[in-house]
Structure prediction request, 316 residues.
Amino acid sequence: MKKPAWLVFLLNLTWFFCYGIATAEVVTIGISTVGLYELPTEIAKRKGFYQAEGLDVRKVVIRTPLHVAALVAGELDYSTVTGVILNATIQGMPLRTVMGWFDKPLHVLIARPGITKLADLKGKKLAVSTFGSLPHTMVKEAFAREGMNADKELTVLAVGGSGDRLAALAAGAVDATPLDVAYIQRTDQLGFNNILYLGDVVDLRLGGFAVSADKIKRNPEQITRVIRATLKGVRFVKNNKPETLGIMRDYLKISGDYVEKIYQFALRSLNENGLLAKASLDNEIRLAREQLKVKDAVTEEKVADWRFINEILAKP
Prediction:
């Protein structure tokens, strides 16, 4: 008995999806916490951009200090954490940045009531993800621009991702912390003060992909597919505002006018080519050298490998 055309179509569609899922290449992407900084990866997942490349992407929340070891050990394929990766690379770890998407930090320095400016933080406790991380570096740079030394005038505590830092602030364990702008609705509701948008005073990248040298050697084709799919997510942010706002509301748990405000912060920093502004990377390298007391020059080639994104951009 001949099957109806609609049934044949349905069976073929079911086979396609089942086979595709079964044969997709599993890829792990590490994040430190859910946030705006890694939004392009979430968009790429939800819109099927990774699936179209034959990838089964699994995002894993890992505490910032563990990203370096996880990449080197092959337990993690890609990391979206940037500061500690660059520091480790300068110190000789076999890691490279292969993609970027935000040229400026998307962090706001938040403090408890009674603290309204940087000078008020002298002698206070500040939470960062880990020592030498991007949030730590951002605050040090902001202090330096005001003629202050954060290392001497603050007590810095390594607490974890933005969610952990907000919890520490709410518990009174610290006095201030730099948080992903996706948290401003919650910080306003808790009555905390927004001291400074760090993107206005610091040129430092946020987000992007780092991989191990072994990954570059053994599976460059996968890197190309991951970057190509994520680049679609990056550009989706700019070119599909209504749907991006919907994803932000759901994924970042933002409501009301806050989602529009946070979206505008993202656009101000977005690098839609998947690269990184030279000024931002140069500044990051300079600050890392100062922190690590590295006297020798550090070239861009030592910390980044742009061949994959450049090859993708060269194709129409």
About this structure: The first helix runs from residue 5 to 23. The chain has a mean pLDDT of 91. The domain at 20-104+205-314 is CATH 3.40.190.10 (D-Maltodextrin-Binding Protein; domain 2).
